[in-house]
Every structure is written in C-alpha cells, then in structure tokens.
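Blinded run. Sample ID left blank on purpose so nobody reads anything into the name before looking at the predicted structure. Input follows.
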Amino acid sequence: MKMRKRLKPRYFFIGAFLVFTLFFCSIYLIYTGLFIPNKLFLPRDAIIGCDVSHYQGEIQWEVLSAQKISFAFIKATEGSSHIDSKFEENWNLASETNLYLGAYHFFSFESPGSTQAEHFCEQVGKRESMMLPVVDIEFYGSFHEKNTDPIEIRKQLDAFIQVIEKNYGTKPIIYTTKEGYRHFIKGYYLDCPLWIRSILTYPSLDRTWTFWQYTSREQLKGYEGEETYIDMNVFHGDEEDFKELFIQIP
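Blinded prediction complete.
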C-alpha cells in the first residue's frame, strides 16, 4: 500500500495566504463600492434610481440624472419638526431634469405618528408628477430591537399612514431594513408598497417588494458632500407598473 504524501508546510501557508488575500481584497472592493455584488441580480432593463439627503451636499442634478437613473427619492422631513436643509433646493433643481421624484420622511420613535405626518404634508404638499410619499422606519441611535415595542411603534405608524392617506388619497411606501421588517412590518401593512434595504444579498421575504435598495456604496458623479457614497435602488416591475406609483392631483 502506497503512503499518501503529506502536503508540504510551505504549500499550505501559500494556499492559506492566497485565500486570505482574496477574501480581504473582496471585502475592500465591496466596501469601497468598486464591486457591488447585488448588481448581478439586476435585470438588464431594470428601472434604477437613487435616494439622497443633505449628506450628498451640493448636487449637480443635470450630471447625476445623466447616469442611467430614472428616479430619485429626496429626504424631506424627520420627526415632527425637522426639515432636511437641502430638500427644497434638491427638489427644485431635480425638477428641471427628466427624473421622476419622490419625497421621504424619516420616522422618529420619539414623537406621535400623526404630528409627523402633518409635518410632512405641510412641508411637501402635493407636487406635480410626485411619486407616492415614503416613510422610512428603521432603528437609529440608541433605538434597537431590545428597547422598541413593535406594538406601540405600529400604533404610531398607523396614525402616520391615516394622515397621509387623508391628505394624498393613497397609502405611503414603507422603507425599512431587514431588521426593521422583521420587528415592525412583517405580517402587517400588506396594502403599502414595500421598499426594502438589503445591501449584501438579494432580499428573500415572505411578500413582494416594490423597491429594493441594493447598495449604499455606489459612487456617481455630480455631488459633493460629507457622504462619498450614494444609495441605489431598483424598481420591481416594468414601466407600466411604475406609472401607478404617482399621486393624483385634482
């Protein structure tokens, strides 16, 4: 019987070194946005867009809009009193491009949902060719799964949705992370379009999503602020489906 040859130690270390090098190179490429794995899941004719806030600083919308994107969601409000400092400027300049536009509200766990919705309605109002309002509900700061009551949060979110529906005649799009979905949304709000954040993998959910934020590490031309990267999103559907996501102005 022949004896199996032992792998020489130097070959083992060389192999291990190559594996670790490949691993860390992959992490670097993903972290810097040079490689975005989720792009592999996007169909060739995907309807792509971005979402922005004051973190992108000064945006040259004519430059940004020319980079194969079709829509942009712009942060408008947060909580019951905060207004994004760049909202009006971003909206006015973006309106001069061919992008479809929507406004979003960052939901606070520290004030009533009804007053937050009233704040959004007052600041945003109804604008020409405006997509459905968006409420962004996710953990932030010191708020996490262990110290947030999903029943109470849903109560406040219900109040927010009621005000939005009264003012716009439609339910809002709900944006959330995978953690936020499990804690607050799963099994509820089935009549609200879902916008899910899943930046490392394809979103596997028990319901259909309408928008998917597939990366937060894209780098496009046309903005200069404290945030180097920009969030990118894809719509789940075709152009006819997309046309159904706009408010109706009498």
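Unblinding after everyone has recorded impressions. The mean pLDDT is 90.
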